[in-house]
Specification:
- The structure is a single chain.
- By secondary structure, the protein is α+β, with helices and mostly antiparallel strands.
- The protein has one domain: Glutaredoxin.
- 23% of the residues lie in helices and 15% in strands.
- The chain contains three helices and six strands, in the order βαβααββββ.
- Strands 2-1-3-4 form a four-stranded mixed sheet, sandwiched between helices. Strands 5-6 form a two-stranded antiparallel sheet.
- The longest helix is centred in the first third of the chain and has 12 residues.
- The chain is elongated and about 50 Å long.
- The chain starts with a strand and ends in an 8-residue tail after the last strand.
Length: 140
Amino acid sequence: MDVTIYHNPACGTSRNTLALIRHSGIEPTIIDYLATPPSREKLRAMIADAGLTVREAIREKGTPYAELGLDNPALGDDALIDAMLAHPILINRPFVVTPLGTRLSRPSERVLEILPETARGPFSKEDGEAVLDADNKRLV
């Protein structure tokens, strides 16, 4: 299965999402979106395919969101997308794209919605929170 993760290795949610993908037996294409941001068209498509608004796809914490005045409700989608492309840290993460759909995997277990049902077995996040039991039942 062709899976792409727009990844930030410094983000625990992104690392947990990548680990869940690999736990499902898939080695995804990993794009460090801070170094290689998606094109305007790809970013718009991922946001739309994930069922989000542009505002829902912006990360506020630990970004220049406030300094750039992006909380101004008068700003339209084009201005927000411009800011996200100029400052990729504003793109919330991790976005995951598979043939089964696109998700902003926050929390990380949302990625399971777009991965095939494969023999996974138990899985816990890096902080020890159990996500899957031995019968592949979601615990969170």
